[in-house]
Write a structure and sequence with these properties.
Blueprint: E1 3-4, H1 14-36, H2 45-62, H3 65-70, H4 74-94, H5 105-115, H6 121-134, H7 138-146, H8 148-170, H9 182-203, H10 210-213, E2 217-218, H11 223-277
Parallel strand pairs: 1-2
Helix pairs in contact: 1-2, 2-4, 4-8, 4-11, 6-8, 6-9, 7-8, 9-11
């Protein structure tokens, strides 16, 4: 099969464009409102940049030439997937704060309680891992590329799974807090299972997706080599994200431990000051 030049045009799909513009406008309006109220810490420029970065990831995945290339090159389709599954959700959630979410915080917590098991971290792990494995079953994968409606559902799965998964780790407003070593187990179990899928795709003896086998070879990539590259992208991305996230969680845990120790020290100092101010003999029984 002859190699052909890649189509690198922008997809300019109206749905993603409207979503990106609307969510960006809503966030910026709320961010400016909080800034005007004087709460610059809750609406820092770092938060704004994180949110805009998340929106940029969605735009790259669904509007830029990455979306067009995903129909031609498996590796580009994998880049699209990891942008929606990890990078966009992480940045979007890091762009949030308790102050920014104040108008909807109660609604979010009520929704978590109403969803019950669906809002549990175990479900988030199963949804994240299950989405990746489900949509890489050959029948499902080829169906998504052959039918635009199915492709939209696939992207919705990945973005939803990513948002739910990272919400339990990074959200400033959540009903369940992972403590102790729970975040480590939460992270490692998920990334290992998805990483194994990447390893399988990398070392599979032949191409398993008929969609790419019956299309011209872009950049001269044989379907099996393209699949191996896509699998390597998945496995490496999962490893890097896991390492960075674990380092972040470790630093955050240390900071929280220090703040807790400071609170306890202040309480102890206040208790000792109150006892000293009460005078000798108070609270002490003489023999």
């Amino acid at each position: 099969m002859l190699a052909v030049a890649a189509d690198t045009s922008f997809s300019l799909a109206p749905g993603p464009i409207l979503i990106v513009v609307a969510l960006t406008a809503l966030y910026v309006a709320r961010w400016r409102q909080v800034r005007k109220s004087g709460s610059t810490r809750g609406a820092s420029y770092g938060r704004l940049l994180a949110w805009l970065g998340g929106m940029l990831c969605i735009a790259i995945a669904l509007i830029s030439p990455i979306d067009t290339l995903a129909d031609q090159v498996f590796a580009m389709h994998m880049v699209q997937h990891v942008l929606l599954l990890d990078f966009a959700p992480i940045l979007l959630i890091l762009g949030l704060s308790k102050v920014l979410l104040r108008p909807v915080a109660r609604t979010v917590l009520d929704a978590e309680r109403a969803l019950g098991p669906i809002a549990h971290p175990i479900f988030a792990v199963a949804f994240y891992v299950g989405s990746m494995w489900l949509w890489h079953i050959p029948f499902m994968y080829d169906a998504a590329l052959n039918h635009s409606g199915v492709h939209v559902i696939e992207h919705t799965f990945f973005l939803s799974a990513g948002l739910l998964y990272w919400w339990h780790l990074l959200s400033p407003v959540r009903g369940r807090h992972l403590t102790g070593l729970a975040p480590v187990g939460y992270m490692v179990s998920t990334k290992v299972f998805v990483g194994l899928l990447g390893i399988f795709l990398t070392f599979a003896p032949s191409s398993i997706y008929s969609f790419y086998e019956h299309r011209p070879q872009v950049w001269g990539l044989h379907p099996a080599d393209d699949q191996a590259l896509a699998g390597a992208i998945m496995a490496i991305e999962q490893s890097i994200v896991m390492g960075v996230a674990l380092a972040y969680l470790f630093v955050r845990a240390l900071a929280e431990s220090e703040r807790q120790q400071e609170r306890e020290d202040r309480y102890e100092d206040a208790r000792e000051a109150a006892a000293a101010g009460a005078g000798p003999g108070v609270g002490v029984r003489e023999p």
